[in-house]
Amino acid sequence: MLAVVKSAPVDGPEGTSVSDCPVPKPGPDEVLIRVAAAAVCGTDKHIYHWDPSIRDKVTPPRIYGHEFCGFVEELGSRAQRTYEGHLEIGDYVSAEMHVVCGECPRCRSGNGHICDRTRIYGLHEDGAFAEFVKVPAANVVKLGRYVPLRVGAFLDALGNAVHATSVCDMAGKSVAITGFGPIGAMAAAIAEHSGATTVIVTDVSDHALETARRWAASHNFANLHAFNVRTMAAEEVKREVDAVTDGDGVDIVLEMSGAPSAINLALDIVRMGGMLSLLGLPAGHSVTINDYTRNVIFKGVTMQGIIGRRMYGTWQRMLALLKSGLNVEWIVQAAYDSLNDFHEGVARFDRHEALKVVFFPEGEKAANQRLK
Ligand SMILES: [Zn+2]
Ligand SMILES: [Zn+2]
Description:
This protein is of the alpha/beta class. The protein is built from 12 helices and 18 strands. The protein has helices at about 40-50, 105-110, 150, 155-165, 180-195, 205-220, 235-245, 260-270, 290-300, 315-325, 340-350, 365-370; strands at about 1-5, 15-20, 30-40, 60-65, 65-75, 90-95, 100, 120, 130-135, 140, 175-180, 200-205, 225-230, 250-255, 270-280, 300-305, 330-335, 355-360. The longest helix is centred in the middle third of the chain and has 13 residues, at about 205-220.
């Protein structure tokens, strides 16, 4: 089968090859899935460029890719499930690619998403930029026809956005999203779909803000306010946010950028007793908080770190949102009918020309024909 392999510990095309690999053989508790569509994520970009942040997690040669959907091709001898529907050959599925230990205190208290023994398929084990991928049967999630293949391709990332937006009920609330990359875009769509009255978006790129405005216009959503935090001073942004939130500040901030300035802006614009859902990773790991006394303690804010997806509450909520009409297909802005175009696809993702780039290993048309 054709697969995208991190073949050598170097940056760029020299370190990633699209090559012929053996089809994986599922173990007794595993399922082999024919990949219909797989999406590029920021993590894949780090692997492609061999960034220091992932070097201790990936040992070449490794097939990467962890956002995908596909069709059940083969079941291991013990892989059949008795609950949540039988798995049949040909079933349309995705999978949670964080495989947790199931034994530690976190796992045993229903908090497997913060299991520190998590193994990630597509980093620690072979992943989904391939014609076939094998995953533990327990991690397989069945999908319905209401999930277009282009969306099935990035449920892992959409799950991050759903998890970040699950910290409180957004109906009737004002929501600010700092960073309009792919997950920020998904979060904006979820906020609008969930009944947020006002959505405020900040980014450093006019292109990203323009995308946000186009999305709002296409959904007839009049209450989007988009601010460029590169060209506007933080105090100016705060004044604008106050103006659109009756002088009160924003109810919820979804921090998607990891930029220290954005994290401080988030604390500045959130209202007294507001909520911050923090997903962005700062490049330098550490962040200095300005006026911690006033903006954190005296404000009485709640801050929630977001990692991965709750297993499997986030998946259930995500599928419910999609079933009720959440539209995120527009986030796929580049699609390729072969893994051979991988280098070009990553380059477009790198240049921020597409929020999401999706690959269809056997072509989009052929994959759609397999949908039952
Ligand atoms: Zn990802
Ligand atoms: Zn665990």
